[in-house]
Specification:
Layout: E1 2-11, E2 14-24, E3 29-33, H1 40-47, E4 55-60, E5 63-64, H2 69-73, E6 76-79, H3 91-101, H4 106-119, H5 135-147, E7 153-157, H6 165-182, E8 185-190, H7 193-199, E9 202-207, E10 210-215, H8 217-221, E11 227-233, H9 239-247, E12 251-256, E13 260-266, H10 272-282, E14 288-292, H11 296-304
Parallel strand pairs: 3-8, 3-9, 6-7, 7-8
Antiparallel strand pairs: 1-2, 1-4, 4-5, 9-10, 11-13, 11-14, 12-13
Helix pairs in contact: 3-4, 5-6, 9-10
Length: 310
């Protein structure tokens, strides 16, 4: 359905995206994963024809969208990272305005507004001014705007940033339902691993403008087939303990948060005895040590040497 061929975007001497190659099959949910600054939003801007690439091409059913972007835009719904609504209008008025931008009118527009308000769970707030909405409600209405013209392809650029867990779950379930019931194709960007694992059929991982891995969840996790991850938890983690782990000859990588450390070691390595001794030396008490099933977070750490949210 959609193919990116050597897509690049350069700003002066800086490449935000470098030679990105991707394909999207009809009916898939594709995840574009990476930390802030990885190049996801720039890639999305080029895919949606809002930004012209420095080089490369975007093809929709083998036809370049760069020559006639207007035709392509008719079948695309775009959910931007920033809220794009008129906050002094009601939810219904926003949908009426954007519906007319999509050249919908009359009974067709009225029907679509009714369907969309039901879909995003805002039918009971349709006459309320948007500035009174929570962040999650604004996000849901923003998605509704993108769905008004019933697009073939829905592009969502980090649609759950800064919202409450309930709204976040509602959005994720809505995306799943659109894909399942309407066979809608979705490109979904995020820096939340768990969202991409829950939603996506295939995943592309970006870092510093480069594509560093692609495949299904399981295919990507197989990158770690020769390694395992060990989770260490303690309320007393200190720099001495972390430093000793980083210098340990059997430890390949260390990722730490306030109360948990994740180690990556060779699959055959046993670390329990060494960890106990290191904890005693550092004067801390470990609350748990256990092996973990590899996650996308572990793969990202393996590929880049840093945590996804760094």
């Amino acid at each position: 359905m959609l193919e990116l061929d050597g897509l690049s975007k350069k700003f002066k001497q800086f490449y935000a995206v470098k030679s990105l190659n991707m394909f999207v099959e009809r009916g898939e949910i594709i995840g574009l994963l990476g930390p802030n600054g990885a190049g996801k939003s720039t890639a999305i801007s080029m895919i949606s024809s809002l930004a012209e690439p420095t080089s490369g091409d975007v093809r929709y059913y083998n036809k370049s969208i760069l020559k006639k972007p207007g035709d392509f835009r008719k079948i695309v719904g775009m959910v931007p990272q920033e809220i794009a609504l008129y906050t002094d209008l009601t939810a219904e008025e926003n949908l009426q305005f954007f519906g007319r931008m999509y050249r919908l009118k009359g009974s067709v527009l009225k029907k679509r507004i009714h369907e969309i308000l039901d879909l995003v769970g805002l039918a009971d707030r349709k006459r309320d001014v948007v500035q009174t909405f929570s962040g999650g409600m604004k996000r849901r209405l923003n998605i509704g705007v993108a769905l008004l013209h019933d697009p073939e392809l829905l592009i969502m650029d980090e649609p759950t940033v800064g919202i409450d867990p309930q709204s976040r779950n509602y959005i994720l379930e809505t995306v799943k339902r659109l894909n399942k019931e309407r066979a809608m194709t979705v490109i979904y960007t995020s820096h939340y691993m768990e969202e991409v694992e829950f939603l996506c059929d295939r995943i592309y991982i970006m870092d510093q403008g480069n594509l560093i891995a692609s495949g299904t969840n399981e295919e990507i996790k197989r990158i770690l087939s020769s390694e395992k991850t060990i989770s260490i938890k303690s309320d007393q983690l200190n720099e001495q303990f972390i430093s000793m782990l980083q210098e340990h000859p059997l430890v390949n990588r260390v990722m730490n948060t306030d109360k948990e450390i994740t180690l990556m070691v060779a699959k055959e390595v046993s670390m329990f005895g060494d960890l106990t001794k290191l904890a005693e030396t550092a004067g801390i008490e470990l609350t748990s040590v256990h092996n973990k099933t590899p996650t996308l977070e572990d793969v990202f750490l393996h590929l880049t040497g840093r945590a996804l949210r760094d």
